[in-house]
Amino acid sequence: MSDKKEKEVDPSTEEKIKNAARALFHQKGYSGTRTRDIAEAAGINLALLNYYFRSKQKLFELVMIEGLLEFVGSITKVFDDSTTTLEEKIRLLASNYIDMLSEQPDMPLFVLSELRSHPDTFLSKMNPQEFLMNSSFIKQYQQSVMEGKIAAIHPLQFIMNLIGMIVFPFIVSPMIKAIGNLDTADYKVLMQQRKTLIPIWIEEMMQVK
Amino acid sequence: MSDKKEKEVDPSTEEKIKNAARALFHQKGYSGTRTRDIAEAAGINLALLNYYFRSKQKLFELVMIEGLLEFVGSITKVFDDSTTTLEEKIRLLASNYIDMLSEQPDMPLFVLSELRSHPDTFLSKMNPQEFLMNSSFIKQYQQSVMEGKIAAIHPLQFIMNLIGMIVFPFIVSPMIKAIGNLDTADYKVLMQQRKTLIPIWIEEMMQVK
DNA sequence: GTCTATATACGGATAGAC
DNA sequence: GTCTATCCGTATATAGAC
Fold it and tell me: Which chain B residue's Cα is nearest to A122?
C-alpha cells in the first residue's frame, strides 16, 4: 500500500520550490519577492533554487506563464466550444472561473500587475486576439445581436462587463472585507453566490429595451 | 503679468519629485521603483530626494495615501450626498470616476496591488466601513429594496458590480488592447462611452423580475 | 537647496564540500 | 541533490563641499 505510487507521495523538491514561488510571487510580485524567502518557504536552501531553476527570472517566467495561461486559457476553452449556447457559456464561465479563483485568489492581480510592468513581453507571444475574436462566443454574440435578441453593444464592452463581474471582486477583496467587516469565510459565500447571480444579471443587462 | 503669481509658475522641487515618484510607483510598484530613477525623472539629484522626504518608504506612503484617498474618496463623496437620488449617484459615480481614471489609468492597479502586499497597514487607519455602510447611498438602496423597486441583493454585491464595471476596464487595458487590436485613442473612446452605458446597464440589472 | 562622493546594506548568484 | 560560506553587483541613504 505504501509502494504503489512513488510519484506523488511527497512533492518533489522542484515542486516545493515552484509552489512556494507561486505563492510569494502572487502575493508580493516579482521585485517584492526575495529568493531567500522562496527557499525558506519551500524548506530548502537558497543554492538549490538556482540549481533547479537557473535564476529568479526563469522561475518567475514559469509562474507568470502558468498564470497567464490559466487566466486567458480558462476563458478561451469555454469561448471556443461550439456545442454550447451563449447562455450556457456565460454560466460555465462564471462557475469555472469563480471556482478557480477561489483557490488562487491572488493570481489575477499578480498577472495583471506584472503585465503592466513588462507590457508586451508576454502578450506578444501568446496572441490572444486570434483565439478570442474568432471564437464561437463572439460569433454567437454577433448572431444574437443581428437577430435583435440582445442589445447591440461592442463585444469588448460586453466581455469587460462579464469578466469584470467575475474577476473584480477577487481583486478588491481586502477592501470589500474591510468595508463589510467580513472574514474569509463570509467572503467565499458571497463569491459562491455570484456563480448563479452573474448569469442572471448579464441576461438582464443584455435585453433589448 | 509675470509677477502676479509666483506660486504655480513652475512646480517646486518637492512637487517635481512627488510627481515623478507617483508616475513611477504607479507603473512599477514600490519595490520595482528605484530612487535613482525617481530623481532622474524629476530632473534632480538623488540626495535631494532624501532631503525633502526622509526615505523611499516615506515618499511611497505619501503617494499611496493619496491614491487610496482618491480611490475611496471619490466614491464616498458621491455616496454621502443626500441631495441626489440613487440614479443620479450612479450616473455621477460613473462619470467622475471614469474621468479621473482616464488621467491616472495606472492608479487603481497600483493601489490594489500594494494593498495586497501590506494588507492592513493602510486600510486600518482610514476605516472605510463607517463612511460607506452608513452612507446616503446605502440607505437609499435599502429603501428602494424595501419598496420593491429594485431586486433584493446584498449591497456589497451591488457595489462590486458598479465599481467593477467602472474600474476593471482600466485594470485590464493592456489585455483588452491586445485582444481588440486597439490603440490608446480607441480605448479612450470605449471608456467614454461607458459613462453613459454603465448607468443604463445597472438600471437594467437592478430591475425586479 | 543642490550637488559629488561614499558608506552601508541587501539580494541574487556561485564555489566547493559532502 | 543538498548544504555552508562567500562573492559581487546594485540600491538606499548620508556626509560634506558649494
Answer: B175
Let me know if residue A4 belongs to a domain.
Answer: no
Chain A residue with minimum CA distance to B200? A205
Does A92 lie in the same domain as A31?
A: no
Q: Which domain holds residue B201?
A: 64-206
C1' (C10) to CA (B104) span, angstroms: 33
The total number of structural domains in chain A stands at: 2
Q: Name the residues in B5-64 having a C-beta closer than 7 Å to nucleic acid strand D.
A: 33-36, 46-47, 50, 54-57
Rg (CA), chain A: 20
pLDDT per residue as tens digits for the range B123-175:
887 777 887 889 999 999 999 999 999 999 999 999 999 999 999 999 999 99
Q: CA–CA separation, A104 vs A177, rounded Å?
A: 17
Residues shown for chain B: 209
| pLDDT tens readout for residues A185-208 | 999 999 999 999 999 999 999 887
CATH value at residue B178: 1.10.357
Which residue in the block uniquely carries the three cell numbers 448607468?
B199
CATH code, domain with B48: 1.10.10.60
Residues B89 and B128 in one domain: yes
Do A100 and A152 lie in one domain? The reply is: yes
Q: How far apart are CA B137 and CA A87, in angstroms?
A: 32
